[in-house]
Amino acid sequence: MLCVVPDSNQLFGQLTAARPKLAWRELLRLSSSGQIRLAIPEVVQWELVNQLREDAEQKLSSHRSATQRLRGLGLHPPSFAAGEAAVEALLTEAGEALRQEILGGRGEILPVPAVEHSELARRSLHRRPPFDAHDRGYRDALIWHTVLDLVEQGEDVLLVSDDARAFSSKSEPGRLHPALASEVEALCGDRRRVHLARELHAALTFVTQHTNAARSAAIRALGSDELTAEVMMAMIACADGEVLEQAELHAQGWQNLIGVRVYPHQPASGLDVERATSVLGEPLSVRVSLVVEAELDVRFPLYAQREDDLAMVGAGELLDFGVGWLDDLVHLQVARAVEIRCTVQLLPADDDVRVPWRLGEVSLRELRVPRAGPGEAQLRLNLDGHPVA
Question: What is the pLDDT of residue 350?
Fold first, then answer.
């Protein structure tokens, strides 16, 4: 799901607005309906309240100056003796109203990221964005590290900020600064995981064009049984080889694991299109998930120095186990439900109108396998490959 992260320069005025901007209301609606993830960094909430404080104090000061000038003319304007208390009450009420508005739209207020002071200090000293040549950008750096945390969680992020100094490319103001894009690429291998929008209306347009429309296109493309089957097999092949570690199967007494394979039975669920994005001139990038009732076929050699040496394998729910040696291999088949999340690229197949899309690159995003718990029985095999009571 696309995660939208607004900066404070996009939300100032929403705290006291009788009718918030249409684009902001629409983003709240999309968040409430589960179509996007709306995430407000905590430092943005602090900035908004502080901006309101500065605005109110400036206007209160102007009011007092005007009162003094009117009195100098012999007039007697009404005083505003409770100004500071009224400002504090306004800040408390407005801050809580914003929090309730965000949470009411199923949005989140993300805590300040746990970034090391040394990392911020190095970024500042080297004047790396979001810091500028005058060493401004501490709060922007906290926002940026919030974005990086979301990327580490597997999210695609749309940062909404008009702070060109901190986040924008100098040559292309609507694009993320190249240094920041390089950080994203170093973190996850794909700099396109973070996009930049300069204002809320542009963010809303991006969400509509690059998520809803792209997801509809992906669902239509995967309406082809042949393509769906190809995608599913590619996902399983992508996950094959990593399942054993995730399942925490283990053995004592073996030297080299021969291999683990995932044999899909009938899927426990259909292929689910979680979200998709599309950039003009580039493939359709689709995040898909699949739950497969699978068997893990584990084969490994057993080397024994003495006749009473044993192998012990944490196997979970056993479907079958080694019968004899099977060419000096212990053989186990273990039942597991494997949940696979992959990002697949669908490429336009212009050369064949009957097959409008073809499968491109497939990359594993997440793999979940129920792990062998401490209460599960372990299988003990003797040298003949038979279970030991």
Answer: 62
Evaluate whether residue 294 is within a structural domain. Answer: yes
Final residue before a domain boundary, out of 171, 190, 213: 213
- CA separation for the pair 317, 333 (Å, rounded): 9
Residues in CB range of 182: below 8 A, 6 or more apart: 191
Instruction: Name the domain count of the chain.
Output: 2
Cα–chain center distance at 325: 46
User: Contact at 8 Å (CB) between 275 and 1?
Assistant: yes
> How many residues are present in the chain?
389
Which two three-digit tokens encode residue 70?
């009117």
Phi and psi angles of residue 48, each rounded to the nearest 5 degrees, phi first: -60, -45
SS3 309: coil
Mark the ranges of the chain whose per-residue pLDDT is less than 50. Answer: 251-258, 280-281, 302-327, 374-389
Tell me how far CA of residue 289 lies from CA of 88, 131, 209, in angstroms. 49, 38, 22
**Could you tell me if 266 and 336 lie in one domain?**
yes
pLDDT of 20 reads: 67
Residue-level pLDDT at 260: 55
**Residues near 199 by Cβ (< 8 Å), separated by ≥ 6?**
10, 23, 160, 162
What per-residue confidence (pLDDT) applies to 65? 85
Helix (H) or strand (E) holding 207: helix 200-207
- End-to-end distance of the chain based on CA atoms, in angstroms? 49
Q: How far is CA 297 from the centre of its chain?
A: 32
Q: What is the extent of the structural domain holding 120?
A: 2-213
Distance between CA atoms of residues 283 and 273, nearest Å: 16
Distance of CA 366 to the CA centre of its chain: 11
Is there a domain that residue 218 lies in?
A: no
**How much is the pLDDT for 107?**
92
- Boundary-marking domain end, from 213, 242, 263: 213
114 located within any domain: yes
pLDDT of 70:
80
- How would DSSP label each residue in 319-333? EEE--S-TTTEEEEE
State pLDDT tens for residues 336-386: 778 888 989 888 776 555 567 889 889 888 888 776 554 443 444 444 444
Confidence (pTM): 0.58
137's torsion region: left (phi>0), alpha (psi -120 to 50) or beta? left
Residue 387 is assigned to a structural domain of this protein: no
